[in-house]
Amino acid sequence: MKKRRKAYSVDAMIRFFLQYYNIPTKTDIEKLLTKMDRLEAALKAAEVTGGRVRKGGKRKNAGEKEQVAKAQARVTATSKVLGILKTSPQGIDVAGIKAKCGFEDKKIRNIIFRLLKAGAIKRIGRGTYAIK
Fold first, then answer.
1. What DSSP letter does each residue of 104-125 carry, written as one string?
2. What's the pLDDT tens digit per position in 113-129?
């Protein structure tokens, strides 16, 4: 008499092939999309605040709070360039920014590129920029 084999379900076979060939499932893709949404939101928050995004679980002690206060009191190169652009509503060129703040051309151009990308400033003419 022949021995009867166990009937395999189609779902089990599909799951096996998906695992064996590392093919992502719908739930895997949804998990990735939620992670990407969280990362994009964190990046957007960092752009708006101009700093790093801190995880919520850690608390700072008194010494660290003083260091953070000192770090926040420091004026960044980007804020210096923004301040110069705010004082000149008609716009200012890179040479004028260099004369006022003393930074290298490359540094100023990088800062301007980031500010343009973030939408904080606008380009008036060739090499001339102003606050939006």
1. -HHHHHHHHHHHHHHTSEEEEE
2. 999 999 999 999 888 99
- List Cβ<8 Å contacts ≥24 apart for 127-131: 127/93, 127/94, 128/91, 128/92, 128/93, 129/85, 129/91, 129/92, 129/93, 130/85, 130/88, 130/89, 130/90, 130/91, 130/92, 131/82, 131/85, 131/86, 131/89
* pTM of the complete model: 0.45
pLDDT digits (tens, 9 = 90+) for 91-119: 999 999 999 988 899 999 999 999 999 99
Question: How far is it, in rounded angstroms, from Cα 64 to Cα 58?
Answer: 12
Q: Which residues contact 85 (CB under 8 A, 6 or more apart)?
A: 92, 97, 121, 129, 130, 131
